[in-house]
Amino acid sequence: MFIATLIVSLLLALALLSSASGKLTRKPAVIEQITAVGVPADKIPLLGYLEIAGALGLIAGLFWWPIGVAAAIGVILYFLGAVISHLRVKDVKGSAPAAALALVAVAALALRLLTI
């Protein structure tokens, strides 16, 4: 079961780092989508830093489970917030990637809890 936890946690961490990269390098498509849901442009780097923190927490959590559990919960809440933000502005298509990553974070949490 730990191998599944390892794979899911590492893949989610890579997705978070990729997403953070788009925010921190200010890729136009990323900035446009985020500002469309009402996030002020000056707050976008903060979202990237939160994703990096989540990725680091998931990786550290492979060695000390409480950090992994906390990181997975944080990532779930982060992406639930993203889904809500997209749905608030009636951007159902835009909410799909965030919803998918939230589900992967739920899987990471469940697997981490099963391997304690």
TrEMBL record:
It is found in: Membrane. Keywords: Membrane, Transmembrane, Transmembrane helix. The chain crosses the membrane at residues 70-89, 95-114. Pfam families: DoxX_2 (PF13564). It is a multi-pass membrane protein. GO terms for cellular component: membrane. InterPro entries: DoxX. This is DoxX family protein. It comes from Gordonia terrae.
